[in-house]
DNA sequence: CGACTATTTGATAGGACTCAACCTCCGTGG
DNA sequence: CCACGGAGGTTGAGTCCTATCAAATAGTCG
């Protein structure tokens, strides 16, 4: 089962025909090595990319050389559903590890959404969640301390990986280097290192060799003031144990554009 | 001429019929006082709001009481074009000054977009720019120093106000208190005060009693590493003097959803 | 005039940065 | 097989930017 199918299944129960349509659209797989940019379009004029394996990020460079990582993409995430122009403002998509991705030409993607309204709705959810995630990162950078930011990011990525079944026994791959964590959180690499040590000393996580072990999610999320609502994940055991967020209807209303 | 018409005119040349349609849709005007929340829907189930005068912001509160201002809205800006649910994650819309706004019920807005494809395209541009602005704020909070952040925000708001003709002789209304600037930039009010004094001492700006005087935009934007491309403003004298950003086609391609 | 909010100033503390060195792990090639 | 080099991670010392606390001043509105 492709990651996009898993991800869309977070929002709708895909019919067999829908699964087939998605799988067919994701047929063309490309690979890039860690650190490489993911080209805006490996096929022709405009394409939507879906991460199949590995992790990628969107980042922006300042003229003084500093880099800000804007967002992270995990398997099942769509990239560029809203990018309308080829020159998207020196924002680039970059692989954080070896990345496999599917590329769907824009026309084929439009067809997929037109032929399957429920898929279109789920894709809209993805775009909406991406924006909400961006806002949550903004809150982190503006209001959270170093250890809270780091804890928050780890909580988020952990749940997002869990949503596409990439967590096993509280362990998942997390290929970010400390330098990349630093650029994502607006901190120095040295400080990331020390803060990471604090989190380890508190017995909240283990993180080494690109693998994250979640030892105490509850404490970590309390420290981070992490409220997973914005991710709109399917209700897992974890979420069910917490207060139910039934306030969120699962079916998106007709969108305004 | 309503601010929404002015704003849309940044992207398309509105025909008389289109102007009329927009003006008609914006007929219902509401007012809130500074500091008040702007209700999600003053009419009925779901409505799009357009700032007519004054400024508003979207903000989020953390459980520890800290507040992050996510974005600022100036006259002509649309709010909630993408908000699909009524419980939008403790994110609230708040007036920064006395605000007049028009509220268009969702069905009427959909009709407006359907009847006038060029208006729909321009509205998409607005949503796209809003997202780009969010990313730019993220870069600010992550990578810019206090004085750079403040300079960047002032540059942005100044140009946005200019785009709707609210700048006269390099002066515009800017009703943000220092506390609000602090919450927008992730800094303490005290530090905002001192940083503001630095900018004044450098003769870059004057800011007092809710009015901003831009004395040296070039120096301010250099200090901020400000690149206005992301705002996609119409080419003004200022922009024409700089390198032309003709790379951006003005007409948005068919969007993917 | 008094109450309130917004701004300003001073003093001190602390969180995060910088610089610099060292260590560890791996893949490469002599 | 081991030396080498490079990338990523770790540690220490010192500094700086920004926060905090506290109090005074200015401005506003009834």
Give the name of the CATH architecture of the largest domain in chain A.
Sandwich
Tell me the Rg of chain A in angstroms: 18 Å
Overall shape of chain A: globular
CATH class of the largest domain in chain A: Mainly Beta
The helix-and-strand class of chain A reads alpha+beta
Number of domains of chain A: 2
Description:
The structure is a homodimer of 257-residue chains. Chain A has two domains: 3-127, Jelly Rolls (Sandwich); 144-241, Arc Repressor Mutant, subunit A (Orthogonal Bundle). Chain A is of the alpha+beta class and 257 residues long. Chain A has nine helices and ten strands. Residues 239-257 of chain A have low confidence and may be disordered. The first copy, chain A, has helices at residues 3-8, 16-25, 106-115, 117-143, 146-163, 178-185, 189-201, 217-224, 237-241, and strands at residues 29-32, 47-53, 56-61, 67-73, 78-79, 91-95, 99-105, 171-173, 205-208, 211-214. In chain A, 41% of the residues lie in helices and 19% in strands. At the A-B interface, strand 4, helix 3, helix 4 and helix 6 of A face strand 4, helix 3, helix 4 and helix 6 of B. The structure holds a DNA duplex (30 and 30 nucleotides).
Short structural summary:
The structure is a homodimer of 257-residue chains. The first copy, chain A, has 257 residues and is an alpha+beta fold. Chain A has nine helices and ten strands.
């Amino acid at each position: 089962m492709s990651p996009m199918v898993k991800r869309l299944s977070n929002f709708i129960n895909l019919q067999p025909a829908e699964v087939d349509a998605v799988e067919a659209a994701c047929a063309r797989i490309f690979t890039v090595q860690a650190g490489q940019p993911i080209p805006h379009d490996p096929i022709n004029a405009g394409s939507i990319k879906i991460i199949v394996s590995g992790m990628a990020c969107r980042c922006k460079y300042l003229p003084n050389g500093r880099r800000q990582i804007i967002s992270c993409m995990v398997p099942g995430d769509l990239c560029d559903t809203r990018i309308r122009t080829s020159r998207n403002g020196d924002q680039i998509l970059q692989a954080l590890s070896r990345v496999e991705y599917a590329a769907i030409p824009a026309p084929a993607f439009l067809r997929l959404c037109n032929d399957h309204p429920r898929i279109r709705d789920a894709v809209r959810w993805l775009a909406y969640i991406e924006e909400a995630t961006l806002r949550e990162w903004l809150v982190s950078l503006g209001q959270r301390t170093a250890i809270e930011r780091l804890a928050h990011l780890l909580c988020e990525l952990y749940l997002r990986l869990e949503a596409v079944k990439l967590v096993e026994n509280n362990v998942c791959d997390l290929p970010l280097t400390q330098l990349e964590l630093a650029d994502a959180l607006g901190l120095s690499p040295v400080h990331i290192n020390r803060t990471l040590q604090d989190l380890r000393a508190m017995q909240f996580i283990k993180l080494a060799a690109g693998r994250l072990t979640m030892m105490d999610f509850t404490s970590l999320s309390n420290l981070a003031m992490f409220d997973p609502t914005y991710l709109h994940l399917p209700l897992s055991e974890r979420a069910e144990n917490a207060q139910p967020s039934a306030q969120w209807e699962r079916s998106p209303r007709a969108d305004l554009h």
